[in-house]
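User: My instructor asked us to take a sequence, write out its structure as tokens, and then describe one feature of it. I'm not sure where to start. Here is the sequence I was given:
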Amino acid sequence: MADFARYLPLSYRPPQDESQVTSHWGQDIAGLLRATASLLDGRPESAWEAPSLNRGWSVRESVGYLVGRLGTPTGELVRTIAFATAENAFRSRAAAESLARRAASASTDELIASLLGIAEDKAAGRGRTGIRELAIATVGALDIGGGLGARLHMRPTASGAVALRRALAAPTEITAVVRGRTLTATDADWSFGRGPEMADTAENILRFLYGRSDRAPGMP
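Assistant: Let's start with the prediction itself. The structure tokens for your sequence are:
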């Protein structure tokens, strides 16, 4: 089992040549969006209104957030978020909900088409394709897939990058659990951290790190 942190500039390893490490994740983002669109295609309205893994959000709202957050040009997105944040008394969660609901007002066919259009742009390297966008696409796919009782494939390198990024900047209640431990994905070739091992699937690790599950990795 490889120590995933060796391969990422996000870790605390000694400096070395990182010329082959890319900060562009367009293909991975595109793959997740296409898989999500395929999962949603043909689903009845009741499935879209089912709760996603993001507490308080429906599947439709989680799709809306992906479309709004990943498909809006940077300048417009900055203005939209700034306005929504001020409109909601500077509460980031409420601002995110506002963005999600605005985009989610489109028809289901329009939302699926938007996901596919954004995927095409990301695959071509157009727009934002950094680790932040990869994290948004990954967690959104988990939220939607979980709400529909399905699992979406994640490339190990991408899931590990998102997990490591979150572990380094998670809320206190989450870092308190994983601090001084090694997180190991049992279905992907990555691990990071030091100390006793917490082993689980990549999806379950991500769910815990992003507050989608209260069950710590490796716990029954």
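For the description part of your assignment, you could build on this observation: The beta strands are 182-185, 191-193, 197-200. Try explaining in your own words what that tells you about the chain.
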